[in-house]
Amino acid sequence: MRDRLLGLVPVLHPDFNERGEMFLGNYADLSGYSIGGFKIFELAGRDRAKAPIWRAMCQQCRQENIFAHAKLKSAAESKAAEQVLFCQNAACSRYRKPTVRDETLSDIRRAEREEQRQAELAAQRERDRAAQHAANEAALREEKKRYLRFANAQIRAGVMPEDENFLTFERWLKSSEHWRQEVLSRIRT
Ligand SMILES: [Zn+2]
């Protein structure tokens, strides 16, 4: 069970001060206390906000549970701590299916990773879109150069832009690439 929990909770190391004492800063040392049917035995680590995470044992089924400091604190301050703390062992009478409000640390991290992944995907899509747009613009500029050779040839041949037979850039774009290559190959520049 301990290994399973260690798999769920990112590897965290208790902090110690220079005298080798566990350093908790402004947080109360909860080790040794019993709160809401759980015996807290040691610091399991820190969350991202550097708040302690505690390893506790369910006094009902003896399974190890991990609780955030704030969770234990609110249980300790509650008149009904057993309504705040629940065992993570589904077979235990103290178990309650986690609700959104009791997200575990791993749920939070998973959500954070998913958020990060979505942000990266969105950024990648934006980069792809910008690159595609730039490529389209460059291709259009190249095509315009090719067209201008043809437009100038039309003018030299006496077909003026106001003439209805004058091939516009829009019509040039609609004509086949094969045809465009063919006419360009006949133009002496
Ligand atoms: Zn239990």
Largest sheet data: 4 strands, antiparallel
Radius of gyration: 35 Å
The topology string of helices and strands comes to HEEEEHHHH
Ligand types: zinc ion
The pLDDT mean sits at: 84
Terminal CA distance reads 82 Å
Strand-residue fraction? 5-15%
Globally, the shape reads: rod-shaped
**Number of structural units classed as domains:** 2
Given as residue ranges, the uncertain stretches (5+ residues, pLDDT < 50) are 1-14
Within the largest sheet, what's the order of strands?
1-2-3-4
- Count every beta strand, where a strand is a DSSP E run of 2 or more residues: 4
Total number of helices? 5
- Structural class determined from secondary elements: alpha+beta
Give the proportion of residues in helices.
40-55%
Could you explain how this protein is built, in words?
The structure is a single chain. The model is unreliable at about 1-15 (pLDDT under 50). It contains 5 helices and 4 strands; from the N terminus they run αββββαααα. The chain has 2 domains: about 1-100; about 110-185, no CATH class. The longest helix has about 50 residues, at about 105-155. With about 190 residues, it is an alpha+beta fold. It has a 4-stranded antiparallel β-sheet with strand order 1-2-3-4, covered by helices on one side. Helices cover about 45% and strands about 10% of the residues. The structure holds zinc ion. Zinc ion (ZN) binds near residues 89 and 92.
